[in-house]
Write a structure and sequence with these properties.
Keywords: ATP-binding, Glycoprotein, Kinase, Leucine-rich repeat, Membrane, Nucleotide-binding, Receptor, Repeat, Serine/threonine-protein kinase, Signal, Transferase, Transmembrane, Transmembrane helix. It is found in: Membrane. The chain has 16 helices and 44 strands. The chain is α/β, with parallel strands linked by helices and 953 residues long. Among the domains are: 109 residues, Alpha-Beta Plaits (2-Layer Sandwich); 89 residues, 2-Layer Sandwich (Phosphorylase Kinase, domain 1); 229 residues, Transferase(Phosphotransferase) domain 1 (Transferase(Phosphotransferase), domain 1, Orthogonal Bundle). Helix 11 runs antiparallel to helix 16, helix 13 runs antiparallel to helix 15 and helix 15 runs antiparallel to helix 16. The longest helix has 27 residues. The chain is globular. The site of one 2-acetamido-2-deoxy-beta-D-glucopyranose (NAG) has 4 residues, from loops. One 2-acetamido-2-deoxy-beta-D-glucopyranose binds next to loops.
Amino acid sequence: MMGLRIQVFLLSVWFQFLIISAVTNTDDAAALKSLKDIWKGLPPNWRGSDPCGDQWVGIECSGSRVTTITLSSMGLSGSLSGDITGLSDLMTLDLSYNKDLRGPLPSSIGNLNKLTNLILVGCSLSGSIPDSIGSLQKLVFLSLNSNGFSGKIPASIGRLTELYWLDLADNQLEGTIPVSDGVSPGLDLLVRTKHFHLGKNKLSGGIPEKLFSSDMVLIHVLFDSNQLTGPLPFSLGLVKTLEVVRFDGNSLSGTVPSNLNNLTNVQELFLSNNRLTGPMPNLTNLNTLSYLDMSNNTFDASTIPSWFSTLQSLTTLTMERTELQGEVPDTVFSLSHLQTVNLKQNRLNGTLDIGTSHSSQLQSINLQKNLITAFTDRPGANKDITILLAGNPICLESGDPKDYCTASEKGSPYTTPSKNCVPTSCSSGRISSPNCICAYPYTGIIHFRAPSFSGVGNETYYQNLEQTILVKYQSVSLPVESVSLSNPRKGQSQYLEISLAVFPSGQDSFNRTGISRIGFVLSNQTYKPPKEFGPFFFIGNGYLHFNGETRKSENSTSIGVIIGAAAGGCVLLLLLVLAGVYAYRQKRRAEKANDQNPFAHWDLNKSSGSIPQLKGARCFSFEELNKCTNHFSDTNNVGSGGYGKVYRATLPSGQLIAIKRAKQGSMQGAVEFKNEIELLSRVHHKNLVSLLGFCFERGEQMLIYEYIPNGCLRDSLSGKSGIRLEWLRRLKIAHGTARGLSYLHELADPPIIHRDVKSTNILLDEQLTAKVADFGVSKPMGDSDNEHITSQVKGTMGYMDPEYFMTNQLTEKSDVYSFGVLMLEILTGRRPIERGKYIVREIKMAMDKKKDLYNLYEILDPTIGLGTTLEGFEKFVDLAFRCVEESGADRPSMREVVKEIENILQLAGLNPNEESAPFSASYDDASKGYQHPYDNESFDYSGGFPASKIEAQ
Ligand SMILES: *[C@@H]1O[C@H](CO)[C@@H](O)[C@H](O)[C@H]1NC(C)=O
Ligand SMILES: *[C@@H]1O[C@H](CO)[C@@H](O)[C@H](O)[C@H]1NC(C)=O
Ligand SMILES: *[C@@H]1O[C@H](CO)[C@@H](O)[C@H](O)[C@H]1NC(C)=O
Ligand SMILES: *[C@@H]1O[C@H](CO)[C@@H](O)[C@H](O)[C@H]1NC(C)=O
Ligand SMILES: *[C@@H]1O[C@H](CO)[C@@H](O)[C@H](O)[C@H]1NC(C)=O
């Protein structure tokens, strides 16, 4: 009896102890427990039943109540269930940058009535934004940008009277912008809000006059890239506080309200790519305006307004296709902060003179496709200014092409330099920081939505940015050693995108708390960039190297749990035995795989892409490629063939790549694959597509190439790409191709015979430089594509050397034959075999050397420029026929072919060693006069160029 009493006593003490020690409010604990059950990828210390007491990562409490959840970039997956609404004291919820967080925002979110910050940036949430969001009366920050939300903007947002920041950009939101009507609320009621970020959605309808009023304190109004129609409301001009205004990329029409000229605080104004009409707006009073873009509207034709020259803060003036005419006054260039002037595609005429007192920061003047007839070259002028005049009459004159006719826009390569140290080569995927310490940085991309500068050249901007980010992190006591920026680039909608890497201090990786706080500083806009960068958002990458955790330890916890549960004699023993056997097998398998893997002994990190000097191919991990192709999704697939599929992808560095992924059955042996990579990585030539790397993992064989934006020659010959190839361009493409092949035959070591020269294997870059693709790659046998011969002979019907076909003897001259066929294809635009007719025979039969153009007028591709003189045409045809001689011995070598085409180029008035001109204007025949390519319906610039189709086979 006594014993029992003591036991009961002890038990109750124990219970009391439990109750006292559990700090967390039971409802909050239960809510977190349910979230824990549906989310994967949570911090390993989310164990037990007392989140506050046990200091779960990402949870902050006040007393027993959970007030903050910050779990950005944790790699969480799952959905946001209604359970979260059990946390009734929650004030801050930040789950940004968890790409695998899916599903809708539950309607019950409206119960969290203490919430001040709701931040869900860059997840994959979808469905409509619930009306109940309007019940979050305390909300100050609402950031739902870069998700997949659809449906309308809930009018109830208008009830959020405390709201400071509204960011719904980069979703699929549709319908009209809600404004109040006495019954239901609307965005016009948000008189304390400073930020309307609603760009990149599908919003439609007019912009209500009621949306803006003089009571508002808005500073950023971003409605870019939607489907809005009708005029800009007059009321916009009443919001005197405005600093950044973007309405570009809509379908706005009508005249620009004159009171826009009252917005004297505006620094960035984008009205481009709309259908605005009427007179060019008068913006004389905007004396703090730095960035002005009104391109692609149909304003009344006018001369350059005099007020351009009075905007003292202007850095960037972009007025592409705005019906400007007359001469460009040199006073425009004397604005002291001016960096970039883009007046492409107007009807500006006369002489271009940038004067003697132009801005010292001036970097680029683009007047392509105007009617400029002369240029005053001033010896004192700054030589760093890129002047672009291609497509003006001044560049039509033959003879020595001038720099300004061929120059192209310069990028702004910037990477945070190493600080007085030599970057080390780091192992296991770590990266050398600016202080040359190897570590796993946290990475992501900062997107600046409207910088006040042009985003070119000047490094000072980036140095400031880097410095302020570092100082911010250190000032909130985060263990950050350094930050590094790289690859600033203008992305879609003129956003300036910069890759960011944040390096840990003390250790080589961050822990979970560190990452969630680093993410929060950016997702919550706690960090304010230097003023000239303007509004921004950040998209972080998942972090994979949390300090003190490895992927394995997650598994071993779960095994531990299983073992714990099964504890009880022989079950445990059996498990241990099984585990031992399993481990042994795994080890054997790994050893075996290593024996078969010819790369096993390569030091893959040595060729890591993080060291820019290394030109060789590097090894890509499957994960890396899987990620940047979005799991090899169909949208990234840009071509396919017998070999497999080709995917387009962007590396985190911003570089575009093409991934050729061999399909089952067309793979080579591992050793052959390795030999091939070694071979290809040694081949570098301007006219050959470069191999960047490979992937040999998980039974995959992939080759990674540089991405060539303008697709294959076939697509341009067929008119599919919209790039018009007149005679000179065709000559240059033939020349480039011949040079690439000549290099393969004579300078590559060992020499490479291409074996499959054809128009789908010639790619064109931005400058229309020809790049030969698909050399050196072993072709699969027995492939079903009927273009291919399925015996040992490899090649494509129509291009194939008959001698090789008969004798099976492969020589360089087989490539020469195929090249000859390609030359005829270049002349006619026809495929080598079309409707059963063979191009070589057809042309031979039609040809009459005594007649003009060898009597081939009928058969030539009209876009070649029929009606103009095709200088060197006959020589070109003669050369093609020498290449397709029956016997290889009678054909010239590729080197001779290159020489011959160079002679032809000279005949046509071109210097063969000159870079090909950038996209200069195409001119129709002289009698029709000058015509913009845009005037031509079939010339489609607007949709961008087609994705490069690299034919894998
Ligand atoms: C704003 O612009 C309008 C029309 O352009 C003008 O009538 C008005 O006086 C201006 N208001 C102020 C306060 O400058
Ligand atoms: C532009 O507006 C200013 C005052 O707001 C005025 O002085 C100037 O004459 C106007 N310019 C033109 C070309 O209408
Ligand atoms: C330039 O264009 C303007 C307006 O179209 C015209 O009046 C002027 O004569 C042209 N000047 C020259 C030099 O062609
Ligand atoms: C770069 O920008 C800074 C201020 O942002 C300016 O002071 C400096 O003169 C600029 N340098 C050049 C070369 O334009
Ligand atoms: C103007 O429109 C063309 C064609 O749609 C586009 O390529 C160009 O980028 C636009 N210019 C600007 C500055 O937006």
